[in-house]
Amino acid sequence: MRDILCISRHSPQSGLLAKEALDTVLAGATFDQSISLLLMDEGVWQACAPLGTELSAFKDLSKNLNVLALYGVDTIYIHANSLKARGLNAHELSSGNTTLLDQADTQALMRDHQHIFSF
Amino acid sequence: MKFTLVILGAPYSSAASFSAWRFCRAALENNQQITRLFFYADGVHNTTALAAPPQDEIDLPAQWSTLIREHNLDAVVCIAAALRRGVLDEAERDRYRKQAANLGAEFSLSGLGQLIEATAHSDRTITFGH
């Protein structure tokens, strides 16, 4: 069983919570915890190409997601139903190293972690 | 059971803070342990000493302070989240040359490592957000 699953459910344009969730993943990895990131609901926008940061008060997070691999977070889990509900598909994901999960796989991922942080 | 509570909601923007406060109180009344309270994201607004709501409304920052003081709880505020939202202790006030400090005396500023460490020593970590 892995230590922490961080579920990030907010878009990068909606506020700072997406960035603060990502910072938590980096902190966990820095402190040698086995930590995973699941993008769900509006959070799936984090893995898509940015719309243009000049229109947003918040920084582009997609580059930060690609840094996760350097911290031992090898894959970013994406809730496939959340993508579908927003008319998105896997080809529109700009971040590498993503794994799409159906409903059953998402439930299994949650069961496989001792703690869940929900952002 | 040992709990770490993560408070992500500002006091009057969602039910998160009040729900967390009620959970914390109920856990303590039932002889459960609170390993640490961690105030993060907009939840840092619960830790200001300067909130002055009307007398007929709940004063959540004061309620948190009282609960922490009465039970000698460990209450940590993420320093990066606090600084960007204007919640400063006296050391940060001096460092950034601001005019005032507003962090309540019951709270301490520290890093995200405190959340990770507390989680590693808890049976459950519960996030109260929106």
From TrEMBL, chain A:
Keyword Disulfide bond in record: no
Gene Ontology MF term list: transferase activity
Gene3D superfamilies registered for this protein in UniProt: DsrEFH-like
Name of the top EC class for this enzyme: transferase
Keywords noted in UniProt: Transferase
E.C. designation(s): 2.8.1.-
Lineage: superkingdom: Bacteria
Family: Belongs to the DsrF/TusC family.
Protein name, entry field: Sulfurtransferase complex subunit TusC
Organism of derivation: Gilvimarinus xylanilyticus
Automatic annotation (TrEMBL), chain B:
Similarity section: Belongs to the DsrE/TusD family.
Main location: cytoplasm
Keyword Translocase: no
Gene: tusD
The EC number(s) this enzyme carries: 2.8.1.-
NCBIfam families for the chain: PRK00207.1 (NF001237), sulf_tusD_dsrE (TIGR03012)
Compartment(s) of residence: Cytoplasm
GO molecular function ontology, one term from the record: sulfur carrier activity
Name of the protein described by the UniProt record: Sulfurtransferase complex subunit TusD
